[in-house]
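pinned: reference chain
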Amino acid sequence: MIRPAGFAGRLRTVRGFTLPGAIPARILDIMNTQEQKMTMQINAPAVLAEVTAAFARYEDALVHNKVEVLDELFWDSPHTLRFGATENLYGYRAIQDFRAGRPSVGLMRDLMHTVITTYGTDYATANTEFRRAGSEATGRQSQTWLRTPAGWRVVAAHVSLLAPPAAPVSAP
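pinned: its structure tokens
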């Protein structure tokens, strides 16, 4: 067993660590604090309600082309990104420019299988499938939300479309 330099006292094992007997209580306090920092509540009801409201606000802004709300709900940072069905946008300004030039018709859609998960009090993901009226294609949307001093903001987003199901092949 290795003893700390200059230590002639007794050693104890605490949670798999060999420690000088004179200080395990303090080390144990530090270890407990670290464990508490690493423990987070998944889907805390109040946090989940906040993110669900932010997601609903985003969806309403999206289908009604409320560009100023969409801009507000993305984190104003060069670190923000959005991978769309036909574009990769890096940074808030690129996303803002994309929104400004986006068509304002045919935006209504039905959401399916929406899953919002919060991790602790400041981080969440929102994933959903969607289908636009008159289309057989299923879209997918993923968002990463972060609590900022200004409120909940999307820091990363991804939108993609699945190909429509193939027509069944008839046997000869």
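why pinned: The first helix runs from residue 24 to 38. The chain has four helices and eight strands.
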